[in-house]
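task queued by scheduler; priority normal; single chain, no ligands, no partner chains; default sampling; output format set to structure tokens
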Amino acid sequence: MTPTLVRHRPQLDLAPAAADASARARDWAEIQERMLVPLYEAVYGHLDVGAGTRLLGLGCGSGLALLLAAGRGAQVTGVDSDHARVELARERLRPGPGDGGRRDARLVAGGPADAVDPASPPYTLITAFHPIGCTAGDEEELAPTLAAVSAAAERGSAVVLTAWGPPERCATSAVMRVAAKLAERMRARRRGTGGWRPAQRDALEEIAAGAGLRPDGSGRVACPFGYADMTSAVRGLLSTGAFDAAVAATDQRQVEKELTEALHPHVRRDGTVWMPNVFRYLIARTA
């Protein structure tokens, strides 16, 4: 499935919106989140997600992946530390006229442990769709998180981990390196505050092993990033959080300027921005 290009308030000034948490969450929901729809759909198809699935989405964002799973009949729970994104997820998953007045969705603002309810049936699928490498320390934090929440899943349940594909197959890699370059000065002062970096080849397998999970297949999915214009591209990429360390190390305007320059090679004649990418997913199983 190819993402639809989004027309998104091109005349607005970037700095105030990017600095505001609720505006950035909406930028994620309206622009960026849909870029990973092919990944969500590929995983759900691989695992035959449906009416018998009880899914826990870690880092669920504004709930698009949960909405797609719920559309297949799954019972979904999502958790994210970003309260603004969770509020948007609640809006998306609120029962509508065509839902018969109900939709079994639970959204939690907080940490993964907050989504574990001993009184509820165990999960049959856990997803961590946020690709590793976007923020410093996410690889190190993921293994213990998965080990803890896996106890709330049935034995043999699927756990999904994701990462960027090889840099040479991800046009966005060169753009994301702006985050690493600008964050370099802070990284020199404070260990572990860097931005985006490509995942190592076996990073997902190592995380699964560290969480006590058994690998059970993997795949690669094309997820092109397509934007209606340069403003939408900058907004969308800033909403990922991958540039937060760069903003802290320099300033918002500097990051926007260098990000715009890095995006110029990907601008097409009609003004749209298009970057082909490949993402990798690993299916692991709980013990």
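post-processing summary
- Residues 72 and 228 are 29 Å apart (CA to CA).
- Residues 1-19 have pLDDT under 50 and may be disordered.
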